[in-house]
Amino acid sequence: MPEIDHKHEAYICPVCRVSVTHTDDGYHCSTCDRTYPVLFGIPDFRIRSDRYLTLEQEREKAGKLHVFGKTATFTELLDFYYSITDDVPDELAIRYKAYIKNAPRQADLTVKDLSLSSDKDVLLDMGCGAGGMLMAAAGQCRTVIGVDIALRWLVICQKRLAESGVNATLVCADAEALPFEYGKMTRIVAGDVVEHVYDPTHLLEVCEKHLMPAGRLWISASNRYCLGPNALTRVWWIGFFPRSVRTRLLKKLRGVDSLRYINLVSPGYLERLLGKTGLHVLHTGPRRVTLIQGVDYPPLDRMLIYFYQLMLKFRLLSRILIWVGPAFEITTEKMVDRNAP
Ligand SMILES: [Zn+2]
Question: Is residue 321 in a domain?
């Protein structure tokens, strides 16, 4: 089983942005006197939690998963996670699990585009979740780092990496306040994360700061203006409704408003935000998909995915799907010197 090595990383305090010292309790910042603990082998540099659970609730849930995971497989741990998570309806849990299991194969497409080099690339996966991208990128980069604000997901990810013999550094942190020095990453991947952060504009600015000049940022997100079922809720055209109507509809149809903390974004909106940063858009396209046989998507979803893949083969349809398809992807490059004449 590979060790997840965090001891030799040069972490900094995400608040003061000065070096921290490694102590028996974790990492200590002498400027603000904060101590960041190492929990289940994962350094926890959070100064706030996600919007679903408090830090205490979150750490407690991660602890339950850690204990369960000692005698369980990754698949069993994933089932256990959804069995103790009330606010995901069963029919969505089936789809989320299928999506997570399919993720490494899906991530292969992105990894190919990023033309990685095992000698020089330092890849940061923002919002790595259950680690699909880390599995695809490991071995193709000098260093692979997965960051997530949810320790519970990093515990699940750690189990998956160990089971597959994949080595990556896992760090629990807010994507908008990372414990790394600026300008150290050659590649940043932010798959399905811009919808979940507190401030999408700030996320893009942070990505730019963490990239080396000419480094690349790859983003994917589900599309607010999808003309089919919304990727997160499976409800058709939900992104077109104003928030109050959306909340009422989702509570009626699903019992819970799963979009309550989600920023609904579109490719045009993100391109406009990117235009205010030093990140230059190289490519915007519909999100490409691959599907592993044996992953348990319901038959209707499987049919829709095949139909979508077929449409992507036609140039014109593919162009249209950027704007009205279920999800999109954008590749950007950090300008070498944005102030140069
Ligand atoms: Zn500090």
Answer: yes
